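Appendix B, example 12.
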Amino acid sequence: MLSEVNIALSQISPKIGDKKRNLNHMKKQIKQAKENGANLIVFPELALTGYTLRDTVYESAEPIPGPSTNLLTEVAKKENIHMIFGMVEKSQKANAVLYNTAVLLSPKGLVGKYQKMHLPTHSVFEEKRYFRLGYELPVFETNVGKLGIIICYDVFFPETVRLLRLKGAQLIICISASPAVRSKFFEALIVARAIENTVFLAYVNLVGIEDGLQFWGGSRLIAPNGSVISQAKYDDEDLVIGKINYGDLKRIETFVPTLRDLRPELFGFLKKQAENL
């Protein structure tokens, strides 16, 4: 496993439902990232299709593996790079069952996937109308580190990142489709999640306007002490690369020993109280 990893944050504005156009755009971003030394490139939530699909979501869905993951797997092999991107996943068992999914590919092929656990269904969001809840928080052991993945609204729930960290994740990737009205929330939460778990965190957000909804971009790579390693522009497409060194984790864990000072008995109380809301 590499001790130092160059991570490319690819902040793109996909065209709604146009997977061919979006895939070509992603391929160009991957090539550019590789030319600049990236070992891992991360795209936003639902980068393959755009976010505001509404009822066209069914015709945009694909199984995993499927045509788009197969195509990008070949790109990962050719460019010798790892990648993470969001897409609409169609269940292998039922056409009406869809997931908001993040896919992880390596130069050796499909590594795995994460299905979004927390689906916002309030204000402008209607994800529960279309998607089924995910139920697993896997940690993926790769050549670019032990990776945990969450999607957008998941970051509002600190137990997601805490569990991934306790399962050994060194880098948390949060792919997102956050509108501009929520920018301050996300800017605060991603730093908090990194600090409280002494973990690297990469946040990659959509940008552009979809059906009147403006996405603010602002993607960034956060160190375990909360400092910003690299940051993309607001409101415009951008590709930035930041370097992390996993050796820094030991030093920061010693200085901020939150994992040592956990009180596991509180987890049981939390479960009990949550069940009785």
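The chain has one domain: 4-275. The mean pLDDT is 97.
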